Amino acid sequence: MSLVRAPDGTPHPPARRRSFPGVLAPAALVASGDRLLGALSGAHVGLLVAAVALHVGGQVCRGLAWHGVLAAAFPGGANRRPACAWHVCAAGLSGVLSARGADAVRIALARRDLRAATVPALAGTLAAEASFETVFGLVLALVALRLGVGGLDAPPAAVLVALAVAGPALALLLARSARARRIGREITRGLAVLRTPRRWAARVLPWQVAARLLRLGAAACFLLAFGLPVAPAVVLAACAAQGSGAALPLPGAGPATVAAALAVAVPLAAPGPVEPAAIAALALVWPAALTAVGVTVSLALLAGLSGARTPRALLGAVRSLRARPARPAAASVAP
């Protein structure tokens, strides 16, 4: 082994770095755990409560927007309060069932009370109500790009090819299949509000804008609760990360997806270095809090909608959502 001489000429072996990695690594993990616990315990409770309240308020606004869509598709059939309750009840379960599972619950709740509704028609109302979210998401992506949050990539070639093939295939199917034409008419019925832009702008758009503003406010409160910056780029990145929970149609995958997206997006968008423990605490608390509150609110609303007073009756109400047989689409086509 080569020797290194000290200033006085005495030879000695070179110092070793990390002589005991197996001992130092647990110490680092303990320190990280201590910082995480400190970030969790130091979170501002009032801001967390405000964030959850703003998020639930956004869900209520989206429920009111969906009522405007339902009223155009089923005139006189959907009242405002139950339609809003259907939406909030389903949205609160998205963290457990996935976004697609929550949509299925929303359709099941609406079909129970809207006797003229079919699954394709209700699916059309969901598409009409989500159209604003799609457009707004594209606008957010452009604004985020302008602010320097990541970049926009072109869609994969496979996706473009699939879309190019799907269009003619769908047109051919509609031309040859009477059942497909009936389903197409029902879906078009659900999109009725889009054929009357003035009605959409008066009864749907204001609630959707209010819902999005409330979600931005909720994101800002979550960030402030953990002492993180609330620059526009950070808030937009946090909102985009929170919306990523709908990307995976797997039950229970939403909160984990949101946590991972927050842990990556917020530091990238921040104007300077951020405390890793605060990011970790945010990634843990945000999806967990919304999922817990959402499930609680959903069960309370489902109990109220079904009249259940006991856990057993509530379980029966849940099972009844799947028990109702589907009606043929032609049964409710307007003459």
| Helix share, percent | over 70%
The main β sheet shows up as: 2 strands, antiparallel
* Lateral arrangement of strands in the main beta sheet: 1-2
The total count of helices amounts to 14
Which blocks of ≥5 consecutive residues have pLDDT under 50? 12-31, 150-155, 325-335
Span between termini: 95 Å
Mean pLDDT: 79
Provide the domain count: 1
Please compute the radius of gyration using only Cα atoms.
26 Å
Strand content: under 5%
The total count of strands amounts to 2
- Strand and helix order: EEHHHHHHHHHHHHHH
User: Which structural class is indicated by helix and strand composition?
Assistant: mainly alpha
From the spread of the alpha carbons, the general shape counts as globular
Q: How would you summarize what this structure contains?
A:
The chain has 335 residues and is mainly α. The protein has helices spanning 21-41, 45-73, 80-91, 94-97, 99-113, 119-147, 157-176, 178-190, 197-203, 205-225, 232-243, 253-269, 276-306, 311-323, and strands at residues 4-5, 11-12. α10 packs across α11.
